[in-house]
Amino acid sequence: MQKNNRSLSVALAQLNLCVGDIAGNTQQVIKAITEAKAQQADVIVFPELSLSSYPPEDLVYRADFLQQCEQAIELIKPHTFGITALVGLPMLRDYLIHNSAYVLQDGVIIGEYHKQDLPNYRVFDEKRWFEPGQGSLLVEIKGVRAGILICEDIWHDAPMEAVMALGAEVVLVLNASPYSHDKPEKREQVVLRQVLKHKVPMAYVNLVGGQDELVFDGDSMLISREGVRTLRAPLFEAGVFVGELAIDPTNTAVVATHQHEALEAHIYKALVTGVRDYVHKNGFKGVLLGLSGGIDSALTLAIAADALGAAHVEAIMMPFRYTAAMSVEDASEQARIMGVNYRQIPIEPIYDSFVQSLAPEFQGFKADVTEENLQARIRGMLLMSMSNKFGKLLLTTSNKSETAVGYATLYGDMAGAFGPLKDVYKTLVYRLAVYRNTLGVVIPERVITRPPSAELAPGQVDQDSLPPYAILDGILERFIEQDEVLETIVDAGFELATVRRVVNLVLLNEYKRRQAAPGVRITRRGFGKDWRYPMTSAWRKQLPLN
Q: What does the record give as the active site (predicted)?
């Protein structure tokens, strides 16, 4: 009998799960299976480590945690009659912990697979937690031989070649692939390379949502054996997306789905998702932030209101004698436009009290950056006090450019629990502000066009202390994300003395970054678990800095 025109109806369970919420994740899995069955799907594929969510980190060392994941499988089994389900979980086998998946079909487990290639770079530490699997898995679904792989496996050739050697006619991949601004394109290239090389259709399912500093964008897909993306799940949107995956070669024309949004659009969605999930998954009532009338706090306010709704956001303007009238006006105007709770607390009386108390100790010393930082620290103290009193999470507003070179005050504007702009360079802050206003103007125009200033001294602007942001960000991106040596950065067109100064500031200020709030990672290399430079190091002295 000629075998042709076979296909599988595949459900991509692009879910927003929470690390450690095994009961909640299990209910999401069961609900998704029910939805997939209602749409007559043959198979439903869940993200990597679905039951624990990703990354569970050192929770996997707890026997009770692993046991709860296994117990959850027993709750899921009865719901798999009439469908095949691929569910990820950490699995203990022969005293070794694996990043694994069960294949459930008609109420029973028909296979288990252990991830073979464990990533151990950038934000990944899987070799700390897991042992690599040693074999491939092939299961039959509706008469189709399906190979099972997990995430990093398809970024390498050996696991794919091994499952194809077993006779796979389709490959189903569970993933927890975190977002960075260039990741959607890279991810699709990897999938297409494997599909076209082996002439095999593929289902790729990814996690969605924020988890600490990581944010997952979904971007799940079905790719035909001809390399056409026949289903594209939307970025940053949870759901069960069902499509047909042709198994045999076909001459039928397939229409590709739409392309990704503009860069600023999906970066902005990543930031909104990261804030929303950090606040909700940690059980906070809402957020508050200091609104200065500057670009960073303006963008942070827009992100927070879009993430949580205006009713759950509070903005506090804390003017001082150096605060420009336009800053007060613009902060008030943005709060009004966005409909957030807004209040003003002048800090001059508090500042005067501090200065008076310190006067005997500071006698004989001239006023300097100490007094500037005192303003920032008073604001930080007020914000933290309101955070404590109202049970709202405090958002910091520092951007990546400032964090990199230490242009921020410890226990001042660095105070807070989460930093939406922590991985956003200053030049990108402006682009995102312009983008947000295309959705509806919420940031006053002169906030975007005026020179940036901390307003801690008369007439102060950021470029009194820093190179122009276009130059600063160009140097930072090369040094931080691409690990370029100083000579290479200079060869790219940057002035030697400026490069020396910027690199020196980056290395000197590691101690500040260790005390900074976590924040959404959107670049190839964000500060946090993705950046592990020592605080105490003589290596800086070995560089050609002088």
A: 48, 115, 151
